[in-house]
C-alpha cells in the first residue's frame, strides 16, 4: 500500500532541566556523542524509515538548531516531495501567541497538513536519544485500522510515578491514561511493568484535524496531546499502543531491545554519553544499515602523538571525534567532540567534552562536561573537590561539573571599499 506520510518534529523544547547546556540553545540542539546533536536521532529515524517530508517546529533559542539543520539536513531540490523545513512559531492564531503546547503547535500549522493532504501524519519529539524503525509503527497503525497509535515503552512499575502511563487491553487498544500515578495499571500479562508514553504519535489525518480543532475550542484545555487531546479521545477514536520493544532495526541483532533514553537532566545526559563509549554499547553508532546522520564538516582525522614513558598520547574506552589531537595526555572513559586539544600530562577521566576545547598541560579533569570553546589553564584540577568546583562552575546533584565556554564566532563576508 502506498501511503503519503507527513512528519512533524516538535523541536521547540526549552530544556530547563539541562541548564546550563541549554543556556544558548534549545534542548534538541545540545551536542551529543562527540559529533552529533540530540535532534539527529529523530531525524535519522525518519529518513532511515523512508519518511522524507518533514517539518521541524522550532521555538526557544532556535538559532543553534537552525544553523545545524542548515549545515546537515538540507536534502531536497529536484524532488519537491522530499524536504526538511524548519518552521518557527508563526503566530497564525487570533491571539498571535507563541506555541502554548504540543497541540497548539500543530494547530498553528494546520495549513501545512491541509496543503499536502497526507494519509498519515507522524508527530515525534526531538528530545530523546533512541533508535526506531518508524515504518514498523506505521504498519502496525494500518493493521489495527487505528485513528491514533502511540509509541509505548515497557518500563518497570516503580517508575510509573515519573511518566504518563498508557492503559491498554490484550489487543493493544488504549482504554485509559494515567499521569504520573504510582498505582497505574500494568501491561496485560506483565504485572511488573507499565506502558510509558514516549510522546511519539501516528495519526490518521482526518482524525487528527478533528481532534485538534475540537481541543482548540475547549477553553479549559492546556493544548497538550498527552494531557488533553488523547485522554478525551478514549471511546471516540480507535487508539492503540505500539510496543517499542518489538521494534526491529535493520543491522541489529534480532533479539536486541531497542535503545531509548530520556536525557532531560544533566545526569541522564551524562549517562547516555557514557553508554556509547562502552566496550559493547547498547546504542550502536557503527550500524551502517541504520546510520546516525548529522552535519558533515571537513575535519581531519584524530591524532595521537608521543610515546614516551611519562608522555604518551592515548585514549582508552573513549569516543574521539575528528580533528582531535591527544598530545601526550591520557583520555579514559570519555567522549570528545571535534577539534579537542589535549596537551601533555593531562588526565581526563569520565568526561564529555564538546567541540573546540583546549585542555592545558598537566590538567586533571574527572566527571566533567565541557561546553564548546572551553580553555582549561595549565595545571587545572576540576572534578576532585566539589566544594571548590562550586565556586567557579555548575555542579549537578551527583557531582557532574559543567564548565561553560565562549560563543563560537561566526565568520561573515567582507567587501572591498
TrEMBL record:
Q: Which family does it belong to?
A: Belongs to the bacterial/plant glucose-1-phosphate adenylyltransferase family.
**Domain of life assignment:** Bacteria
Q: Which InterPro entries match?
A: ADP-Glc_PPase (IPR011831), ADP_Glu_pyroP_CS (IPR005836), GlgC_bac (IPR023049), GlmU/GlgC-like_hexapep (IPR056818), NTP_transferase_dom (IPR005835), Nucleotide-diphossugar_trans (IPR029044), Trimer_LpxA-like_sf (IPR011004)
Instruction: Explain the purpose of this protein.
Output: Involved in the biosynthesis of ADP-glucose, a building block required for the elongation reactions to produce glycogen. Catalyzes the reaction between ATP and alpha-D-glucose 1-phosphate (G1P) to produce pyrophosphate and ADP-Glc.
Task: Tell me how this protein assembles.
Answer: Homotetramer.
The stretch of residues making up the signal peptide is: none
Q: Where is this site: Could play a key role in the communication between the regulatory and the substrate sites?
A: 59, 98
Q: Which GO terms describe its molecular function?
A: ATP binding; glucose-1-phosphate adenylyltransferase activity
Q: Where in this chain does the record put each Glucose-1-phosphate adenylyltransferase/Bifunctional protein GlmU-like C-terminal hexapeptide domain? A: 300-403
Q: Which Pfam families match?
A: Hexapep_GlmU (PF24894), NTP_transferase (PF00483)
Q: Where, in this chain's numbering, is alpha-D-glucose 1-phosphate bound?
A: 99, 164, 179-180, 197
User: Which intervals hold domain Nucleotidyl transferase?
Assistant: 7-277
What is the protein's name according to its record? Answer: Glucose-1-phosphate adenylyltransferase
Specify the enzyme's EC class, one word.
Answer: transferase
HAMAP family registered for this protein in UniProt:
GlgC
The UniProt catalytic activity note for this protein reads: alpha-D-glucose 1-phosphate + ATP + H(+) = ADP-alpha-D-glucose + diphosphate
Keywords of this entry: ATP-binding, Carbohydrate metabolism, Glycogen biosynthesis, Glycogen metabolism, Nucleotide-binding, Nucleotidyltransferase, Transferase
The annotated pathway is: Glycan biosynthesis; glycogen biosynthesis
EC number(s) per entry: 2.7.7.27
Amino acid at each position: 500500500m502506498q501511503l503519503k506520510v507527513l512528519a512533524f518534529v516538535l523541536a521547540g523544547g526549552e530544556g530547563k532541566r539541562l541548564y546550563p547546556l541549554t543556556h544558548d540553545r534549545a534542548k534538541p540542539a545540545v551536542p551529543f556523542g562527540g559529533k552529533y546533536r540530540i535532534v539527529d536521532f529523530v531525524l535519522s529515524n525518519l529518513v532511515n524509515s523512508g519518511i522524507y517530508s518533514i517539518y521541524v517546529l522550532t521555538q526557544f533559542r532556535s538559532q543553534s538548531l537552525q544553523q545545524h539543520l542548515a549545515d546537515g539536513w538540507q536534502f531536497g531540490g529536484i524532488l519537491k516531495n522530499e524536504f526538511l523545513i524548519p518552521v518557527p512559531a508563526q503566530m497564525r492564531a487570533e491571539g498571535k501567541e507563541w506555541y502554548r503546547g504540543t497541540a497548539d503547535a500543530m494547530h498553528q500549522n494546520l495549513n501545512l497538513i491541509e496543503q499536502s493532504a497526507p494519509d498519515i501524519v507522524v508527530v515525534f519529539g526531538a528530545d530523546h536519544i533512541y533508535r526506531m524503525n518508524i515504518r514498523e509503527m506505521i504498519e502496525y497503525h494500518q493493521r489495527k485500522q487505528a485513528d491514533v497509535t502511540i509509541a509505548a515503552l515497557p518500563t518497570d512499575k516503580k517508575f510509573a510515578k515519573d511518566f504518563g502511563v498508557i492503559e491498554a487491553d490484550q489487543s493493544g487498544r488504549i482504554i485509559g491514561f494515567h499521569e504520573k500515578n504510582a498505582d497505574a495499571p500494568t501491561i496485560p500479562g506483565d504485572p511488573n511493568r507499565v506502558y510509558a508514553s514516549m510522546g511519539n504519535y501516528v495519526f490518521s489525518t482526518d482524525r487528527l484535524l478533528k481532534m485538534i480543532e475540537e481541543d482548540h475550542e475547549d477553553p479549559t484545555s492546556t493544548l497538550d496531546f498527552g494531557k488533553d487531546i488523547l485522554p478525551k479521545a478514549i471511546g471516540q477514536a480507535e487508539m492503540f499502543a505500539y510496543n517499542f520493544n518489538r521494534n526491529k532495526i535493520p543491522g541489529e541483532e534480532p533479539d536486541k531491545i531497542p535503545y531509548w533514553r530520556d536525557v532531560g537532566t544533566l545526569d541522564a545526559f551524562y549517562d547516555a554519553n557514557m553508554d556509547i563509549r562502552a566496550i559493547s554499547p547498547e546504542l550502536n553508532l557503527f550500524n551502517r544499515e541504520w546510520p546516525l546522520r548529522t552535519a558533515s564538516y571537513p575535519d581531519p582525522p584524530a591524532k595521537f602523538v608521543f610515546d614516551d614513558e611519562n608522555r604518551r598520547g592515548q585514549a582508552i574506552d573513549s569516543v574521539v571525534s575528528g580533528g582531535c589531537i591527544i598530545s601526550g595526555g591520557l583520555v579514559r572513559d570519555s567522549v570528545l567532540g571535534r577539534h579537542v586539544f589535549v596537551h601533555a600530562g593531562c588526565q581526563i577521566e569520565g568526561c564529555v567534552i564538546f567541540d573546540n576545547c583546549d585542555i592545558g598541560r598537566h590538567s586533571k579533569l574527572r566527571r566533567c562536561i565541557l561546553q564548546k570553546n572551553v580553555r582549561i589553564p595549565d595545571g587545572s584540577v576540576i572534578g576532585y573537590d566539589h566544594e571548590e568546583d562550586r565556586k567557579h562552575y555548575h555542579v549537578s546533584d551527583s557531582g557532574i561539573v559543567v564548565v561553560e565556554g565562549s560563543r563560537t564566532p561566526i565568520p561573515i563576508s567582507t567587501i572591498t571599499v
